[in-house]
Amino acid sequence: MSSGFGGAGLDLGGGSNIESMSKDEIIHQIRSQAALAGAQELISSISKHCFKMCVPAPGPSLGSSDEGCLGRCIDKYLAAWDAVSRTYVAHVQKQQP
Which residues are in the Tim10-like domain (predicted)? Predict the structure, then answer.
């Protein structure tokens, strides 16, 4: 990726050169990258939270109770995240004219 404010050689990732992209393609690329970053952050948060909660003494393998706890924790975490996300989106949509 080239630096420079003139846009010469700017790369949005995935090998796409910004000069050859339409405005809609750029917006789509940015949204895709933001969604990917959000998903990676969610997975990281779930991993840290649930592992800390369900595996107090890590060993060479997970026991069946650890696996069950992790599964339930992930399900609850995703359900809570989904509820918060839906509420936030609804709130933002109400704020728009």
Answer: 29-88
Give dist(CA 71, CA 50) in Å, integer: 9
Between the alpha carbon of residue 54 and those of residues 47, 48, 49, 51, the distances in Å are: 10, 10, 9, 5
- Give the chain's count of helices (H) and strands (E): 2, 0
Q: Report the Cα 49 to chain-centroid distance in Å.
A: 15
Which tokens sit at 5? 């404010």
Q: Which residues, given as ranges, of the chain have pLDDT below 50?
A: 1-9
Q: How far apart are CA 78 and CA 84, in angstroms?
A: 10
Q: What architecture is domain 18-95?
A: Orthogonal Bundle (1.10)
Q: Please indicate, yes or no, whether the overall pTM of this predicted structure exceeds 0.70.
A: no
